[in-house]
């Protein structure tokens, strides 16, 4: 009877081992991981665990290990920085970025100059100005595509006919 009367310490978040908690957190979406930062210090520390953010960076932004190394940032910082830049397109970004990457992969051996001619992405302010000028909202997936690449520079200086001719020779 005396053995049954011994009290056990109450189970708290702080007393739980780290590995099972990290496993549980690995199933959360980025929104839930961010919310965990506000629950307690322990969950804040655990939800900042860098490998948890690797999956989200790859899923939503298609960030590779190589890009991470180049930027010299942790996964969580990469996610937050990318989200602050193009977060409004999170539902479209991965699919559109993959389409651009596939197009570049296809064109690289066939017409490398065309790939080199792609411009950097447009800024939000530029897209807002276009919307103001045309008097209507652009769809988010369209805006997202322009955030990745804002068209291309002239491949061959001169007339449009030369550009079209070069395009046709690259595609044939």
UniProtKB/TrEMBL annotation:
Domain of life: Eukaryota
Gene3D superfamilies given in the database record: 1.20.1280.50, SMI1/KNR4-like
GO cellular component, one term: cytoplasm
Keyword Protease recorded: no
Short name of one Pfam family: SMI1_KNR4
CDD domains on file: F-box_FBXO3
UniProt KW keywords: Ubl conjugation pathway
UniProt xrefs under InterPro entries: F-box-like_dom_sf, F-box_dom, F-box_SCF_Substrate_Recog, Knr4/Smi1-like_dom, Knr4/Smi1-like_sf
SMART domains found in the cross-reference section: FBOX
Cross-referenced SUPFAM superfamilies: F-box domain (SSF81383), SMI1/KNR4-like (SSF160631)
Name of the protein described by the UniProt record: FBXO3 isoform 3
């Amino acid at each position: 009877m005396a053995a049954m009367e011994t009290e056990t310490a109450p189970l708290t978040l702080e007393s739980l081992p780290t590995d099972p908690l990290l496993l549980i957190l690995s199933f959360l979406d980025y929104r839930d991981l961010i919310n965990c930062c506000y629950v307690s210090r322990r969950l804040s520390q655990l939800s900042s665990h860098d490998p948890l953010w690797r999956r989200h960076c790859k899923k939503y932004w298609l960030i590779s290990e190589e890009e991470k190394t180049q930027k010299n940032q942790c996964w969580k910082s990469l996610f937050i920085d990318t989200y602050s830049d193009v977060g409004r397109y999170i539902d479209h970004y991965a699919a559109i970025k993959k389409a651009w990457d596939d197009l570049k992969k296809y064109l690289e051996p066939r017409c490398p100059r065309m790939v080199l001619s792609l411009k950097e992405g447009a800024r939000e302010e530029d897209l807002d100005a276009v919307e103001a000028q045309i008097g209507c909202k652009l769809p988010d997936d369209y805006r997202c595509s322009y955030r990745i690449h804002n068209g291309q520079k002239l491949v061959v200086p001169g007339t449009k006919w030369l550009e079209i001719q070069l395009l046709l020779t690259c595609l044939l």
